[in-house]
Amino acid sequence: QASLLKNDETKALAPASLQKELNNLLKFNPDFAEAHYLSYLNSLRVQDVFSSTHSLLHYFDRLILTGAESKSNGDEGYGRSLRYAALNLAALHCRFGHYQQAELALQEAIRIAQESNDHVCLQHCLSWLYILEQKIFDSCVLLEHSVNKSLHFGLP
């Protein structure tokens, strides 16, 4: 369903049907991180800011609690999840037009990424900072810097 939502939303289950299935899954396994993520995507689809925020936070909470993040990232444990949770929360707020909350979440993601020396996360933060600045101001300097750094790190 996540793949369908990403590639061809028309082939995915209807939002209400999908949420019903997800609620059944989560009733029996509330720590199923991927179900929370799919619930997040489904809530975004219907523009439900409360449910999408709730599901996104539960996704990252479960990811940290289950230790899935430390298995995939080896040496960092839950730090990677925390900075990407803040980054995704900033993106979510920006999508719904909550620019002040987006800026605060983005500042947190930047702070955590700087402490971890995570250049890839910082580049994503810079891209979102540019998007956020575009919503508030008109700035080309951030875009130029972002493109140069992306090229340096081999990011698209």
TrEMBL record:
Keywords: Cell cycle, Cell division, Mitosis, Ubl conjugation pathway. Pfam families: ANAPC5 (PF12862). The keyword Cell cycle applies. Residues 36-135 form the Anaphase-promoting complex subunit domain. GO terms for biological process: anaphase-promoting complex-dependent catabolic process; cell division; positive regulation of mitotic metaphase/anaphase transition; protein K11-linked ubiquitination. The keyword Ligase does not apply. Belongs to the APC5 family. This is Anaphase-promoting complex subunit 5. It comes from Sinosuthora webbiana.
